[in-house]
Amino acid sequence: xxxxxxxxxxxxxxxxxxxxxxxxxxxxxxxxxxxxxxxxxxxxxxxxxxxxxxxxxxxxxxxxxxxxxxxxxxxxxxxxxxxxxxxxxxxxxxxxxxxxxxxxxxxxxxxxxxxxxxxxxxxxxxxxxxxxxxxxxxxxxxxxxxxxxxxxxxxxxxxxxxxxxxxxxxxxxxxxxxxxxxxxxxxxxxxxxxxxxxxxxxxxxxxxxxxxxxxxxxxxxxxxxxxxxxxxxxxxxxxxxxxxxxxxxxxxxxxxxxxxxxxxxxxxxxxxxxxxxxxxxxxxx
Length: 285
Hints:
Blueprint: H1 4-39, H2 44-64, H3 69-86, H4 90-109, H5 113-120, H6 124-131, H7 139-154, H8 160-163, H9 166-179, H10 183-196, H11 207-220, H12 227-239, H13 243-255, H14 264-284
Helix pairs in contact: 1-2, 1-3, 2-3, 3-4, 3-7, 4-5, 4-7, 5-6, 6-9, 7-9, 9-10, 10-11, 10-12, 11-12, 12-13, 12-14, 13-14
InterPro entries: TatT, TatT_sf
Pfam families: TAtT (PF16811)
Signal peptide: 1-22
């Protein structure tokens, strides 16, 4: 028995490792399928009511595999999307966005320790140097971190500590765009476009650059990503007090067919937002 025990122990270790691998693969497949289902959903309320159950399920996978980059990044995407798109309570939104960013950081740091040190440090030059080492194989995790970071800032734009992180977010998004301008239907460019339209030109903003980036994002999507037009209207046209551009963009969104591969839910939400902006625009201009 003493001779057999080490073999049994080794076999058990291999079995447990295999089970962990199978669990991670199952969780990854679930996360991918869920993401596909959500992005193609036509009913935002159904997503709003059903998504928390899957968020909790991914949390369970993460508790079982706390160092799994795959599960952490899947959790980051779900938490950040839910916080940014479906939660109206400010305190709850901040809490969920905090979790999303924490998962994104841990997920990227699991495979990129040197970058993690720079990400958590105060030396921005070191951060940019490490960022430059990422290649096309890393674009998914990198984009997840960037979008989770953006959702984290969006959750409380009155918090100056969050606003101070905007240069890091911009650097992350620029690296994603350098690696693949068309990634996620051009949404990295859309994020960058909004960032250029947050301030007037007199205060360092670049609204014309922002408009160009948002228009490029729309073109890259095959003219299917209606949210890029809504963002151009909300942030760029309003910043420039250009009502003709504002209303024209929103009317185009409202007239468009929202059904498009991987963009249906986003387009339905874009049309809802367009209606709100058209109404509030009567007082804005």
